[in-house]
From TrEMBL:
Main function: Catalyzes the first step in hexosamine metabolism, converting fructose-6P into glucosamine-6P using glutamine as a nitrogen source.
Keywords: Aminotransferase, Cytoplasm, Glutamine amidotransferase, Repeat, Transferase
Entry GO CC: cytosol
Protein name: Glutamine--fructose-6-phosphate aminotransferase [isomerizing]
Major subcellular location class: cytoplasm
Record's catalysed reaction(s): D-fructose 6-phosphate + L-glutamine = D-glucosamine 6-phosphate + L-glutamate
UniProt keyword annotation of Transit peptide present: no
GO molecular function, one term: carbohydrate derivative binding
Enzyme superclass (EC): transferase
Organism: Rhodocyclus tenuis (Rhodospirillum tenue)
Positions spanned in the full protein: 268 to 614 of 615
Length: 347
């Protein structure tokens, strides 16, 4: 799926605004703020993008859950780019939130969507079609990774427009994007070990997912996937927030999954993990090949083959998706059609 999303980069040396539509250049020139609205997994993609847009493009960014946004009297800024993210392009809450933003006077809109003919794409000034192919299951997986790739391209386009990215950094970022499909393929090779971990989750009733920084939304997404397809109650938390409540839940019956890439937050995360271990919580840590972290009693570690810098969330979500998939298989739930859920939430 990612290869199809990134196909349009072939031979490109920079991210042209035109990737997002004919008027993109003029619209990007008028934008000083980004408002992202989406639901579910697409909302988590937006949360990751906020870290990129602020750090790389220097653009203030707010991310709103679409089903709530329209009930707030938020203060509108006409120079806002309203970014809607949706796999189906038919999610009623996202469409209503976009309409609300327009009514407030925000006319610059972009849809990141997998359905070219959808209502959402018709309603926005700009669009990026993710070309992930059809998602067979209800739970969004490849739609998520392709949404992230699209949001990273948007970040690069805005960063260049605002003079925040020189040609060398842009070329490096594009090279990293092009290498992504191969990097994901290597992560998928961890499947046998993840399958073995899944056996240990099958009789559990609760699980906690921890991450920090741009991997906090990945922890949220890991928890959502486990809930959606295996029906195990799961919560995603920023690891630093543990001591403000969830630590009370931790005991040996609560598996704790940690997203632990080798970035500047790893040391802080490790001290959070010690807090879990001290309460008897069993840790399942997704680290990188060169993360300084080691196995011990109750601490299981799987290593992703390479650390991927800014784009690391795209790789770290994959083992979490696989974990939920294998837990669901062991528990015998329907991975494609979870009870009570619909592919498109149109009401
Ligand atoms: C949003 C969403 C999905 C989820 C499920 C229900 O859909 O919450 O993330 O997996 O399919 O809807 P969309 O707006 O991205 O199509």
């Amino acid at each position: 799926a990612l290869s199809a999303t990134l196909e349009m980069l072939e031979g490109a040396r920079s991210v042209q605004p035109g990737l997002f539509g004919a008027n993109a250049e003029a619209i990007f020139a008028d934008v000083n703020r980004v408002l992202i609205i989406a639901c579910g997994t697409s909302y988590h993609a937006g949360l990751v993008a906020r870290y990129w847009l602020e750090a790389i493009a220097g653009v203030p960014c707010v991310v709103e859950i679409a089903s709530e946004y329209r009930y707030r009297e938020s203060v509108a800024n006409p120079h806002t780019l309203v970014v809607t993210i949706s796999q189906s392009g038919e999610t009623a809450d996202t469409l209503a939130a976009l309409q609300h933003a327009k009514n407030l006077g925000m006319a610059h809109s972009l849809a990141i969507c997998n359905a070219p003919e959808s209502s959402l794409v018709r309603e926005t000034a700009l669009r990026f079609i993710t070309r992930a192919g059809p998602e067979i299951g209800v739970a969004s997986t490849k739609a998520f990774t392709t949404q992230l790739a699209a949001l990273y391209l948007l970040t690069l386009a805005l960063a260049t427009r605002l003079g925040r990215l020189d040609a060398v950094r842009e070329a490096n970022a594009l090279q990293a994007l092009r290498h992504l499909p191969a990097a994901v393929a290597r992560v998928l090779e961890l499947e046998p070990e993840i399958k073995a971990w899944a056996e240990r989750f099958s009789d559990k009733q609760h699980a906690l997912f921890l991450g920090r920084g741009r991997h906090y939304p990945i922890a949220l997404e890991g928890a959502l996937k486990l809930k959606e397809i295996s029906y195990i109650h799961a919560e995603g938390y920023p690891a630093g927030e543990l001591k403000h409540g969830p630590l009370a839940l931790v005991d040996r019956n609560m598996p704790v999954v940690a997203v632990a890439p080798n970035d500047t937050l790893l040391e802080k995360l490790k001290s959070n993990l010690q807090e879990v271990r001290a309460r008897g919580g069993e840790l399942y840590v997704f680290a990188d090949a060169d993360s300084e972290i080691s196995e011990s009693e109750g601490v299981h570690i799987l290593r992703l083959p390479e650390h991927y810098g800014s784009l690391s969330p795209l790789l770290h979500v994959v083992p979490l998706q696989l974990l939920s998939y294998h837990v669901a298989l062991v528990r015998g739930t329907d991975v494609d059609k979870p009870r009570n859920l619909a592919k498109s939430v149109t009401v």
